[in-house]
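pinging the channel bc i need a second pair of eyes. not urgent but kinda urgent?? the chain im working w is below, pasted from the shared doc
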Amino acid sequence: MKADPEQQQIIDTVTGLLTALANEDTAKFQSVTSPGFYIFDGGARFDGDRVLGLIKTLHAGGKRFEWKVTDPDIHIEGDTAWIAYVNKGNITDTSGTSPQNWLESGFLKKRDGKWEIVFMHSTRVPKQ
């Protein structure tokens, strides 16, 4: 299924967040998230500063992440939307690169004509 232009903007917003985290790009991160943004990940709640700090710490420890939005399911209601998708990626550390998938979802709000992420949830898919 091909995304319509509005759905593609939502996919691009989420992809922008993932890219910002991978590159420790605070300005980009703030451009795609709403004030008050937070994420549930790894059994904890992280606001924007905490999740950026966590990524910086993991990078300093030698971990690198690759993330990609796949199989998006997007629902738009006026100026709000939610997305559920499979984040297919990799984790690289000193032991090598390991494929990893996450089940993720997000709630977005359109402000001044631009989609911003208000909330996200990420659950790592156990390896089989």
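so The chain has a mean pLDDT of 96. and Residues 92 and 117 are 26 Å apart (CA to CA). — does that match what u expected or am i reading it wrong
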